[in-house]
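**Discrete fold encoding**
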Amino acid sequence: MRTTHMNRLDLTQRSWFTVCVLVIAAGVFVGAQAQAPATQFEPKVGQEGKDVVWVPTPQVLVDKMLDMAKVTPQDFVMDLGSGDGRTVITAAKRGARAMGIEYNPSMVELSKQNATKEGVGDKATFVKADLYETDLSKATVITMFLLPDINLKLRPKILNLKPGTRIVSNTFTMEDWMADETERVENCTSWCTALFWIVPAKVAGTWKLPQGDLTLKQQYQMVSGTLKSGNANAQISDGKLRGDQLTFSAGGVQYTGRVNGTTIMGTTGSGATWNATKISG
């Protein structure tokens, strides 16, 4: 009887020992798993996105795009479809505040990590958002590498931004809104062209001048029309907008002025001042 009792105790002790070992082993395994580094997301060229596949802009073209926009620390740059964050990070390195709009959450997180590694996490921000629903009104510079049909869908929204807002696109156009400047970079094998626009003020309509009426027609940054003074009706030539700056010639006189909503104030080629107030259109 005593031997049987001892055997039972021994069996019980062994069972508890086995359980303890298993519990400890399980804890070590779980702890090891918890400490194992998460797999780093690696973007792949051509990976599917919401509206486009991802293809990175060559760094040499990123630099050229920001050069064309003359980005300074006073700017707020928004990159539409920001991918791995390189354009936003480069703008932040120039001292600008910059924000990337990206629909892929993995790319957003990767961009945040890249910005931190580059020491600009305080100036470079990234948000998961839809291009078409994003408020662009605070941007002074907008950069993008999107397909032509997406550019076209965004165009009305862009044209309603504050005059003088600078837009730069990698390769793709705005259809019949011709770029103000186009440049191609060297030492680049693909996606090497930058197109630059400045959002023009809205001037179409009739403006009252002290000497007569100025009637303007507008096709984006290009301006035509007539200047009527008494019985004379002079055709406008070389009319162009660069943001809120309007230039044109009429009746042999060169006019330069700044558009501010419904008023224009400026000077002529001879240095005389002129002003106009919008009365229709």
About this structure: The helical segments are 2-35, 59-68, 86-93, 105-117, 148-159. The mean pLDDT is 88.
